[in-house]
Amino acid sequence: AAAERAASERLQGAQAQWHAARVSVAAEVALQYSSLRTCLQQQAIAEDDERSRAQTARLSQQSERAGFTAPATHALAQASAAEAVVRSAQQRMQCALELKALVALTGRDEATLRTRLAPTPLQPPTDALLRIATLPAQVIAQRPDVYAAEREVAAASADVGQAQAQRYPRLALSGTIGAAQVRTQGLQTDLNTWSLGPLALSLPLLDGGRRAAQEDAARARYDETAALYRARVRLAVSEVEQALVRLDASVGRTASAQAAAEGYRTAFRATEARWRAGLASQLELEDARRTALAADQSLALLAHERAGGWVALYRAAGGGWQE
After folding, report:
1. For residue 279, what is the DSSP state?
2. CA angle 152, 158, 164 (to 5 degrees)
3. Is the pTM here over 0.85, yes or no?
4. How many Å apart are CA 217 and CA 223, to the nearest integer?
5. Could you read off the pLDDT of 249-285 as tens digits, one per residue?
């Protein structure tokens, strides 16, 4: 009975590890999806920047032909437009790579995946998300690895019971029961036989301490699995706490990042208006443009970081698996 309990506990632990693989795959797909959406958002930013720089280069060329702009200033505008083209092309390549990785993770056809992704609009970062400050400790118990470690402790305890049972006297009774029937030319003969015995009694007295050593070894394995279980729980608590810290930090920085991006965009628009009126230099315009672009990209990366924090919390808490 103890051996059967040990095998049953280990079977449940193996099933929990299968669920752990499902949670891991779900988390990786979510991270890859978030990375792709962030890449597409950065691609949209790069394409807007490319159009803006191209418009600036055209206006600079017209001004240079009219004699109001120095050739060096026009060269700077052309170089800035060319740089935007390169950046936009690199971003498109990166998004294509992200999509390939998502195809590999999901096993979906690329054309089908593109169709499903196309209608999804790019949502700006928002604070209208759930905020979690604490998590019930009971949630840790449903992590597949913690549950599997718990089942291993139960199995090791059953192994100790089995080792103890091996030290007790054993009474064995053997026998046979047989049934046979012979029918020939209308005659039927029943040949039923049975036998009982012998009766065997085993007294484990002189075994050189082998069974006692086996029991000690089973107890040592139980102590080891209990220590591993405690270590697994501590690791789970640490991972949940780290995920909560990262998530809280990313949410706390979102409002400031949004304010900074909006402020830099406003400053760029004002500088562009002054440049068109001849009150700002090309260098001032490009500096304001780079600052605004960096702020927009940082905001997109922060949104990806926040999504990664949610995924990390999902994985640390064991996903949606229940037992």
Report:
1. S
2. 140
3. no
4. 10
5. 887 788 888 899 899 999 989 998 988 888 888 778 8
